[in-house]
Amino acid sequence: MIAGSFAATASAQSNVTIYGIVDAGIVRETGGAAGDVTKVTSGVGSQSRIGFRGTEDLGSDLSAIFTLEAGYKLDDGTLDNTSSALFNRQAFVGLKSKTLGTLTLGRQYNPLYNALSKVADPFGAGYAGSAKNLFPAGGVNTRVSNAIVYATPTWAGFSVEGLYALGEQAGDNTAGRQFAIGFNYSNAGLNASLVYNNRNNDTAASGTTAAVDRETGKNTLFAINYDFKVVKVFGAYERDKGLNSSPIPVANAYGFKTAPKPSTDAADALVGVTVPVGSGTIMASWMNKNDKTASNQDAHQWAVGYSHGLSKRTSAYVAYAKIKNKNGAGYTVGNNNEAGSGDAAFNLGIRHTF
Asked: Is 303 helix (H, G, I), strand (E, B) or coil?
C-alpha cells in the first residue's frame, strides 16, 4: 500500500514522454564528380530520431525539465554520426518558469538554426529544398555542446533567446566559445526573428603547441513569414562575415582542380511559399548566395516540393531542387540529413511521427 501510494504521487508530479520521427526516402542525386547516384536515405524531410522528454513540477511556478534525443539512420539502423555520442541531437537539463523563463544546460539548438528552420524556410530545413544547401547551418550553427541557454517568457508576442557555449580549452576562457542571441515575434499569423551568432575560432596553447589566434565568425539573420491562410510567404536575409561564417558543406563535390573557397564575406537571401491543397502542402523557394570576396563564388537554388498527409502522423512527400554554381563555387543539393553530392536532387519518401 505504501509503495503504491508513493508511485501514484510521483506519477502525478512528473512525466516522461517518448517521441520520435521515422523518415526514409528514395533520393536521386546528379551532377557530382563521382557521378549520379540513387539511394535509400534516412531523414530526408526530418532526421529520424528517438527522444525522451521529461518534466517534474517543483511547485511555486517552477518545473525541472530534460531532453535526451538520439538520431539514427533508418536505411541501415546505425547512429547518424561517426562519434561515440549516443544523444547526439539534444541532451540537456534545466528549469522552467512561466514567469521567469527557461534555463537549460547541455547540447542544444543554436537560435540561428531555430530561426532558419522554423521561421525562414518553407521546407523546414528538409527535403531537397533545404535552406541548409546555401545558408551556413552546419555543425555548431545547428547544435552547440557545452551550452547555456536562456529563453524569456513571451510578452505580447515578443520573446528573447540567448545561448553561450564554453570552449572548455584550458588556459583560455574565450578560445572556442560561441554565443548567440535571438529576438522573436509571433502573433496573428506573423512570425519574425532577428539572430546574431558569434563564433570564436581561436585555439588555446597545449603543451608545446602554441596558441593560435584566428578571425571570429559572425552571422546575422533576419527571418520572417506570414500566413495569409490561402498561402504562407517566407523570407530571409543573412550576412556572414569572418572565418567559418559560411562553410561549404562538401569540400570539393565537383572535383575541380582548384577546390572552392569558403566565403568569409557573404550575403544569403531566401523567398518562398507554402500553399495548402486539400490534405497536402505545396512548398517552393528560391535562394541566393552572394559571395562578396574576390573569388565571387555565387550560387542560387530553386526548389519545389509537395507533402501529402496520409493521417495525423504520417505523410508522403516528393521534392526536387537545382543549384547553379558560379565561378567555381561548390554548393550541393542535400536534404535534412545529408549534404548531397551534386547540383540537383529528387526525393520521394514517407515520414511518420510518434
From this structure: strand
> What is the residue type of 154?
T
User: How much is the pLDDT for 83?
Assistant: 73
Residue with cell 518562398: 272
Instruction: Say which CATH number the domain at 90 has.
Output: 2.40.160.10
pLDDT in tens, 223-249: 999 999 999 999 999 999 999 999 999
Cα gap 260→276, rounded to integer Å:
39
Buried b / exposed e along 276-302 (16+ C-beta atoms within 10 A): eeeebbebbbebbbbbeeebebbbbbe
- Give the total number of structural domains in the chain: 1
Q: Where are the alpha helices (DSSP H) in the chain?
A: 2-13, 111-115
Cα-Cα-Cα-Cα dihedral sign, residues 63, 144, 195, 170: positive
Residues 231 and 281: their CA atoms lie apart, in Å, by 10
For the chain, which ranges sit under pLDDT 50?
1-12
Do the domain assignments include residue 7? Answer: no
**Residue 17 and residue 68 in contact, taking contact as beta carbons nearer than 8 Å:** no
pLDDT at 84: 76
